[in-house]
Amino acid sequence: MDAASIREGVKIYGTGETEVRALDGITASFEAARFTAIMGPSGSGKSTLLHCLAGLDTLTSGQVSIGDVDLGSLTDNELTRLRRDRVGFIFQAYNLVPTLNAMENITLPMAIAGRSPDQAWLDTIIDTVGIRHRLRHRPAELSGGEQQRVAAARALASKPDIIFADEPSGNLDSVSGAELLGFLRRAVEDLGQTIVMVTHDPAAAGYADRVLFLRDGTTVGEMTEPTAERILDRLREL
Amino acid sequence: MLRATIKSLLGHKLRLLLTTLAVTLGVSFVVGSFVFTDTLGAVFENLFSQTTSTADVIVRPAGDFDTFGPQARPVGIPPEVIDEIQTVDGVEQVEGSVFGVVQILGADGTLLGTGPPIIATSWTETGLFTIDEGRPPEADLEIVLNRALVEQQGFTIGGPVTVIAAGFPETFTLVGTATLGNLGSMNGVGFAIFETTTAQRVLGIGDRFDTIQVAAAQGVAPEQLVERIQPLLPEGFEAQSAQTVAEEQANQVKEGLGFFNTFLLVFAGVALFVGTFIIQNTFRILIAQRTRELGLLRALGATSRQVTLMMLGEAVAVGLVASVLGLAGGIGLAYLVRLAFEAFGGQIPDEPLLILGRTVAAAFAIGVTVTVAAALLPARRAARIPPMAALREEEGRMIGQTRRSRIIIGSILTLIGVVALLLGLNDLVPEAVTVVGVGAGIMFVGIAALAPTFARPVASVLGRPVALITATSGELARRNAMRTPRRTATTASALMIGLALVSLVAILAASLQATVNDLIEETFTADLELDSLSLQGTGFDPSITDEVAALPVVGELTRIRTATAEIDDDAVTVAGIEPDRYASFINLEVSEGSIEALDGDGIALESDYAQRHGFSVGDPIEIIFPDKTVTLTVRAIFTDNRTGGRILIPMSVFDSAVPQQLDVRVLLRFAPDVDPATGRSAIEAVVADYPNVALRDEADLRAEATSQINTLLSLIFALLALAVIIALLGITNTLSLSVIERTREIGLLRAVGMTRRQVRDMIRSEAMIIALFGAALGIVVGVFFGWATVQAISADTEIHLAIPVGYLVAGAAAAGIAGVLAAVIPARRAGRLNVLEAINYE
Ligand SMILES: Nc1ncnc2c1ncn2[C@@H]1O[C@H](COP(=O)(O)OP(=O)(O)OP(=O)(O)O)[C@@H](O)[C@H]1O
Ligand SMILES: [Mg+2]
User: Fold this and answer.
1) Contact state of A80 with B753 under an 8 Å Cβ cutoff
2) Which one is the CATH code of A34-45+82-237: 2.70.98.50, 3.40.50.300, 2.30.29.30, 3.40.190.10?
């Protein structure tokens, strides 16, 4: 079974003159334990797709599922709980709560749920992302790369079914970006995590198992075992 | 620049409204006080000019006597004076009047006139009253009552009315109703009018009068008559034109209203003071949030002066809006007070509310001044924002630094406040009351300045129990409260003021209560007392006491009678006692001489009184009673004046000098082996026939004292509630702004799984922490105020400090809950934020 899927998803913003079809009948699915990248020109609906898949936004029509749960049938509270327990997030920036230190930010979803984290699992993640020496620091005291790695650790900590990342390396220099992407790659390979990532950067997409190409709110192709060069070629065609 | 100011204001209507509200409430209170007292003043002025118009000259006792008060009757005017005045050239008509208070039995058997008095007077043609229905009283046992009282009680003309006359219930016939000017009744005050001889009998004044009204013949000026009449009067009386008397009375009422007005304005002042904290905080937060915008303005060429002016311009606009709203609110408030007044039995003639130019001017002056003054510091701070701030990524975090200057300034201010407060309380400076008020204000400012330096640890500690209740939401709230210590501290400081005052009042009340309780326990050695229910000291018939004394359950018993007399040109209350028995019931703590030595021609004085008037044991004292002047010798000086009177004379002298002998208080003990309950019910059976006699034991006295203190307490609490409400608005305001500021963070929390409810919990918990912080500060300051005040009072009259811990803890808890309520709006806004929009919020 797929970790997440969308069928004939339509998302319309505004009405009449200002109507924008951000998603235009898109159908796609994301296999478990795989790393999928989503690419496409600016305004093609990548973020919208991600938000709808993650239960942060609702479709105008169509169907979204996480595992076997149809998101359309959930109430706001159920959606929130689903995000808390089964979905992880990494945004482009401002991922962390400024009053909490790195460790507290990592365990935040579990704290919200009132669960205690699996310590062994936490240790594994923390070592994988390599921020053990920064755990007591507040976000303001961390570099951008460290902040994004903390965010990634948080996304993984609650063992979600799927992690969504919207340009997680977009604000990072190439070295920090590569570190973060390498870590996401390992999470998929070693820990069996499922990740869906939006990116503009062919090099970033090169870390994925599969690339999904979007245009005008619908899929216009995909590529498995991608490399940066092949992706660049393909993008030029689009 | 102006356009930028207006745009910025209109862009944030809710913010503007919230900020405005703090000043609006204070201004409303000021306006309400003015409008209400001005209106009442006008009503009275009208009333007095209408009611004295028929007499031209009034003869009355000279000196400062409040005509309707309990001390009203020094020595009456002998009837011969009337005859003499009659012979004066230019006199048309002369009439004598008596004034006093009576009690009457209401339709349901309760005694009326124990609270608001029923003023008794004699019917005169030239008097104050006009007959509304029926006719004036012409014979003994006829009575006329004011219309409102008749309507309220459902009496009928021709029907019976029971009057406690001369200490005994007597049945009168109601022959008419009367009105005083256009005034129905004032807050339950009633009028009973009798034929002159009856009035004199009922009020026990013999054949004398309290005042004489003279009507002038055609063409004779009142001033002329005054000059002719004055030489005829015995010493101690004066003639005045009716107009002068009316003016005096109006002035007296105005003075009374002035006090009332000042009293209300003090609370308005407190409210405005709290308001300045809120405004200052709001402006500071707004400027912090707009650092980038202001930096941009500076980068585009605005001078720092322009930025200051822009901020002050906003303040003026907020002040103007607050003044207009406050003016409207105040008029509404005055209207409400009037309704409340009427709901409690008062009747104010239907005159329109009086809104003087002064009131409007005050509204604008106060509204604008307070707002601008509060915005001054934040505006200067805004001016210091460098153009570079426009480029910085991080929003201006100008809050949070705990500079040394802050500690120094805060400490100095607090110290000055404390010193001023102590000096003022202990009367060591002129204008002590003002010094106390200003000292308290300075102290509040000082503590508010210091508060940010310890807001972090305090919020951390107070947040822990809160976090236990609301888990992660609470923990995040705790962090948020600690993250902006300045904001938390100022918001809490506003609440501190109200709570400090509430604590002070609670401590004073508790101390008073404890002192009174001890006093009752110490001095009340009787098993029971019979008490006349009259506040004015009119007693009950001695035959009632005789009847009680004759009961087999009653053992020892002593009576106390009181009358007004004149000593050293002062009207005083003199108590007649049975010296031996009195001493067996009440421990007077005689410091010189002895009470037993009173018999015959002795007098005992309370030490303060004796000292003030320079009397000592062995001195002769002349006491002028209405019918007789006696000279007694000081035989005892006692320190305890807390139970009986300050001036005690033997009953034999009292009875010979006072025409009307009524028992005001009777103390008794049961016969040996009588069970208190049995004894009491036997006495109750007798007293049941006399509604003017109340039976009290120690517990009753205590309960009565408690209820009196509590009544006062609830009034003050109700007024202080205003200050607390404004402080709570401050919490609403601060958190609303914080929610806007933390929009993206809230979005993130929602994205990673925080439910709307948990978000609301988070905001409410922060409110609770701020409120608890304010309450804690307030209670600490309040306890200090309480201690200082009790200390100062104790220098005069010993009272001991009692701290009502339960009450204060309950107050803190209530503040915490109120804080949560104050956060309802910002919490809801935070909970409603759309996750995606919040995350993408700039
Ligand atoms: N809240 C909104 N209201 C109106 N239109 C919106 C909203 N959010 C997105 N859109 C529109 O929907 C379309 C898709 O937007 P989306 O953010 O998904 O694009 P994207 O592929 O993520 O682009 P980018 O690469 O620039 O991030 C765009 O045309 C955008 O203008
Ligand atoms: Mg996007």
Assistant:
1) yes
2) 3.40.50.300
Q: Which of B5-19, B111-125, B246-260 has the lowest mean pLDDT?
A: B5-19
Q: What is the mean pLDDT of residues B761-784?
A: 95
Chain segment B157-184, per-residue pLDDT in tens: 999 998 887 677 888 999 999 887 655 5
ipTM of the complex: 0.89
Phi, psi of B622 (to 5 degrees): -100, 125
pLDDT for the residue numbered B720: 84
Q: What tens digit of pLDDT does each residue of B187-236 get? A: 567 889 999 999 888 887 778 888 888 888 888 888 888 888 888 887 77
CA distance B271 to B276: 9
For ligand 1, atom 25, the nearest C-alpha belongs to A42
How do residues B452-474 score in pLDDT, each as one tens digit?
889 999 999 999 998 888 888 99
Q: Which domains does chain B show, CATH number per domain? A: 1-75+239-400 (no CATH), 76-238 (no CATH), 423-524+698-842 (no CATH), 528-696 (2.40.40.20)
Q: Tens of pLDDT along B372-399?
A: 998 888 888 888 877 776 665 444 444 4
Rounded Cα distance between B803 and B787, Å, is 9
What residues in A contact B745, CB-CB < 8 Å? Answer: 94, 97-98
Q: Which residues of A touch B835 (CB under 8 A)?
A: 56
Query: Do A113 and B753 count as a contact with CB atoms less than 8 A apart?
Result: yes
Give Cα A10 distance to the centre of its chain: 20
- At B249 the three-state DSSP class reads helix
Chain B environment of A161 (Cβ under 8 Å) = none
* Closest residue to B839, CB basis, from A77, A91, A114: A91
Calculate how far, in angstroms, residue A216's C-alpha sits from the geometric centre of ligand 1: 10
Is the CB of A52 inside a 6 Å radius of any atom of ligand 1? no
**Of the ligands numbered here, which is closest to the C-alpha atom of A166?**
2
- Neighbouring C-beta atoms of residue B154, cutoff 10 Å: 10
Residue A156, token pair as written in the block: 């993984």
Environment class of residue B268 by beta-carbon count within 10 Å: exposed (0-12), middle (13-18) or buried (19+)? Answer: buried
